[in-house]
Amino acid sequence: MNDAYSADAAAGRWLRRFFLLLALLAALTLLIAMPVSGLWLYRSGDLAVNRAVEAQSAGFALYGTGLDGTAAGRTDAGSGIGEVYKLALYRAREPQIVLAGSSGMGMLRDSVFSRPMVNMAGTASSLSTLRESLDAMLAEHRPDVVLLALDFWWFSDAWEADPFVRRTTERQAPGMSPEALRMPLQSLLQGKIGLGQFLFMGFRDNRYGMRAQFADEGYGPDGSWYAGAGLSEPRAADAGFMRTLDRVRRQIGEFAPQKSVSTAHLDAFADIYFRLRGRGITPLVFLAPLPGPVLDEMKKNEAAWPHLFNLRRELEARGIPMTDTSDPRYLDADSCEFLDGLHGGEVAAIRILRDLTSSWNGLLSYVNMEQCNRLIAEWKGHASIRYEQVKDIWESDFLELGCLKKTR
User: Between helices 2-44 and 178-189, what is the axis angle to 10°?
Assistant: First the structure.
C-alpha cells in the first residue's frame, strides 16, 4: 500500500514538473515571440497608415494591411483600418473629384482623370455608413464632384433596418493591441507567411502591410485597389461566379428579396444627395456593375429585387438622376473584366466613367477621354491593366471563363 502511494506521489510530482516546464516554455516563447511580432508589424507597415500616405505622396507605394477586416483592424468606434487609411489619404491629396461608395468600383484610378482624384470606394457598406464616410471627408476638404457608386442591396430592409442610424464617427488607426500582435504568429501558423519571412523580415520599402509586401495587393497612391497576385492564381474563390450565383438562387446576403423599394432608404439617400448639392458639390449617381450571368439569373425573378430593377425610376421620382450601369454589357464589357461576382475590374470601371460623361457633360473637364479610349482598346477583356510598378504579375484566366489574357 505504501509502495503504491509513493509511486502515485512520484508520478504526481513528475506531472506537476512537466506542466510547469511547459508553462515556462510557453511563457518564454511569448516573451520572445511578442516583441518579434511587434517589430514585424512595425517593419511590415501593417499599422503604418501615416507612413504609407507619406510615401504615396512622394511616389508609387502600396498599402495592403493583413489586419483589415479582422477584429485587430477595427477601432472601438467600429471603423476599419482601411477607412482610417483612406481618410488620411484624402486629407493629404485634397482632390477635386472623388469616387465614393461601393467597393465594386474600387479599381478606378486617377490615371484616367485630368484633375486630382481619390478613390474612396469601400469606405461605405450601407447608406448609413455612406453618410458617415462623406461627412468625415467633407469635414476635411470639399471636392467639386462626387461620383456616387451605389450597391442595390443598400436599399433593402434586410441589409440595413434603419438607414438613418449613426455610430460614433471617431476614426483612429488601431495600435499594437494583443489582437494585432497575434496576427503575424497566426499568419505563420496558417501558412500565409513562411518562417523565413517571419524571422528575417525582408520587407520592401514601397510596400506597407502583409498583403502589399507578399502579394502586391493593396491601395495605390490614389486609393484605388491593386488586386496583385490574385490575378495570377489558377482558380479564384468565385470561379465561374458559382459562389455568387448560389447566393442569388438561395436569395441570401446581398440578394435577400424585397417586395418594394423601401421608402425609408429612399429618404435616407435623398438626404445624402441633396446635402451634397447644398454644399455646392455635384453628385453623379450610378449603380456599381454586376456580371452578365449574375444579372441574367436575377432577371428570372425580377419581382424579388425591385430595389435593383426599379431603383432608377424611384430615385428619379424624387428628383435624383441616376445612371443605371449595373449591366456593363451595354458598355461592351464582358465577364472577363470582373474580379468576382460583386466587384468590377479596372477596365469595366473606365467604361462606366466614360459613360457618365454622357450624363453630365461637365465631367469631361475632369476626365482624360483619350486615355480612357486607349486603355479600353488595349486592355479589353482584362480585369486590370498591367503597370510597371507591379510588373511581375500577369493576369490569368482566374475566373475560369475561357478569357484570353495577355502574356507579354
Answer: 100
DSSP letter at 123 equals: S
Q: How many CA atoms lie within 13 A of 89 on its CB side?
A: 30
* pLDDT reported for residue 87: 95
Instruction: Give dist(CA 228, CA 180) in Å, integer.
Output: 23
Q: Do 226 and 217 meet the contact criterion of CB atoms below 8 Å apart? A: yes
Dump pLDDT digits (tens) for 350-360.
Answer: 999 999 999 89
CA distance linking residue 72 with residue 161, whole number of Å: 27
Which among 140, 73, 134, 68 has a CA at the least distance from the CA of 101?
134
Helix (H, G, I), strand (E, B) or coil at 257: coil
- How many angstroms separate the CA atoms of 180 and 261, rounded? 41
The 8-class DSSP code of residue 139 comes to T
Q: Look at residue 121 and give its three-state secondary structure.
A: strand
What are residue 149's phi and psi, to 5 degrees? -95, 120
- What's the average model confidence in pLDDT over 277-289? 97
Angle at 218 between CA 375 and CA 233, to 5 degrees: 75
Residue with cell 460583386: 342
Distance, CA of 375 to CA of 369 (rounded, Å) = 10
d(CA 281, CA 143) in angstroms, rounded, equals 7
Average pLDDT of the residues in 220-232:
92
Task: Give φ, ψ of 354 to 5 degrees.
Answer: -60, -40
How many Å apart are CA 40 and CA 395, to the nearest integer? 30
Is the Cβ–Cβ distance between 323 and 286 less than 8 Å? yes
